[in-house]
Each structure stands twice: as C-alpha cells, then as structure tokens.
Write the structure tokens for this entry.
Amino acid sequence: MVLKVFRWSPGFRERIQRFWVPAKEGMTVLDALLDAQRRLDPTLAFRYACRVGMCGSCGMVVNGRERWACRTLLKSLRSGIVTVRPLYHFPLVRDLVVDLAPLAEQTARVGGVFVPGEGATPTAARIGRDAPERRRIDRAIECIGCGLCMSACTMVANDPRFPGPAALNRLFTVREDSRDAGHGDRGGAVLVSEDTLMRCHTQANCTEVCPMEISPTESILALRRRAVRRLLG
Amino acid sequence: MPKRPRRILRRRWATTEGWRDTKAGMWAWLVQRAAAVALLAVIVLHLRNPFVPAVQATLLGLVLLHGLLGVRAILLDFGLPVRWHRGLLVAALVLGAAIFAAFWGWRWS
C-alpha cells in the first residue's frame, strides 16, 4: 500500500511524501507509520503513546477524516492509497505533530474549569451514578482531549474566537455540576456572545468524529437552551 | 530570537482533499445556505413574471429545501437527539421531494 504523508518542519516547505509499506492483516495506520519510520525514514515525526485507543495522542486526519491512527485498520479504509495529514486548526510542530495547547487555552478562556465552593474538602463529594445531574453529563465527561473535534469543526477554522467543541463540552459538564461554585463568575457573557454558543451551526462534524462517542454538539445545544432561558428570564 | 509565526493548517476548499469526507450535517448546512442565496435570484425572476412554470417550480423547490432544512435545525435546537441529525436530513429531503411531486402533479403536469 502507498502511504502519503504530510511533511513539514519550521523553515521548510510542506510536501507530501510517499512510502510503500507492505500491508498485513490487522495492520493499523499507526503500524504503517511506524514501519515507514523504522525502515524508510527515521526523521518522520508523529505522536503516539498507548497504541490501544486510550490516550488520544495519535489523532490525525486519515483520508480526509479525523481518526486515531492506532484504532484505524488499513482494511477499513478500503483504499490502496492512504493519505495522512496532521490535525487541522492546531499550530504545527513538525510533520504530523501538532501543539494541542489551544485546547486547554480555550477551555480556560470559557471558564470550563471546576471551581470548588467555600469549605469544600480536598475530596469532592461524590455524585451517584444514577443521579439526574450525573446522567445528563454521563457521556460528555469522557472527553480525553484528543483534539479531533477541533480539527473537524469548520467554525473553528472560520472564527478564531470560537472556543471549539471540546472547550464547550467541558464547560457544559462543569455547569451541570452542582458542586461547582463558578457559575456566577462565568456569567452570561460567554454564553450569549455571538462567537461562542451562537457560532455553532449544528453541522455535527465534531459528533461524527469523536472516538469516545461524545456529542459536543449536544452539549453546545444544551448550553444554548440554558442561555436562552436565562435571557428570557 | 524573533518568534517564528505559527503555522496552522486549514482545509482548503479549492482542493478535492479539502472536500474529502464532508459529512451529512455539513451538506445540510451548505445546501440550506446555498438555497437561500439562490432564492434571492429566483424571487427576482418570479417578481418580473410570475407566470413562468419553470421559475415557479424552481422557487417551490428552493423554498421547500430551505424551509425544511431550517425546520431540521430548529428541531435539533429544541432538543431532538443530535444522533438523529442524518435521519432528519433524509426526512427533510424525502418530505420536500414528496410535496414538490404532489404540487408538480397538481399544478404543472
């Protein structure tokens, strides 16, 4: 099979490099990249850690779609040519490696950070698995910050002030948490700003690519309904 | 040392790679916007001469497309599960085609 890989490093022009890799049964895109790196070009840069779909480090754009390289079987792509590019909308570091810092920056900017209340103990009070507030955010708290949703979101591309699906999903989980004391500080400004919730156009690209099967679109729509209710008193 | 400008990749819409794997929700959004722009031109044509069947049919088609995709967006806004969004797109297109066919049979055939 042919692996077409995006190559770039600071000071050099971007290019697509082709690697011929012998495809084997059960081989993933990450396996193919490792094979290319070990046998053909040790300077090829990409990021991975757990190799089993837990950490989210190996997020990249494979054949036009954001995926985890370690969980994408070559067979599932049904193509003899596999194109691999780095995630969109993140600063490039080198080749397939991007800087995921904007994910944390945007999350902090919208106030998606838990604020303990006065007198809170170091170990937060437990909310039962069956409690309604827990069930509302049950899926949304599984985000591991892989950045695939940010890459797939067309609004992130067009509006740098739009915090993106991951940050807003995190904000949703914090706002639904009764132990959080930061609701007042976050106020309505973030929620009703035209560059925040209103910028989401419900294309659901983030939902489609999320490997954890979270729907950030759902979280954004829930926040939007909350904001509208607040506006209407 | 001067700070090097950050390099950020974006989908290039002028390339086939940029359109690769464009998803259903994106198509729904794009088609609704395109129908709105096309409506402006067709309404002008319709106002000049309201009795041209081809313009009437185009106008109806665009209104159905724009309106029903708008209803889809409103239903999602009001809390229908987002996992239904592809089904809602299909439903909007099928309903639009059915209404258009019924009108076609009644008015223009």
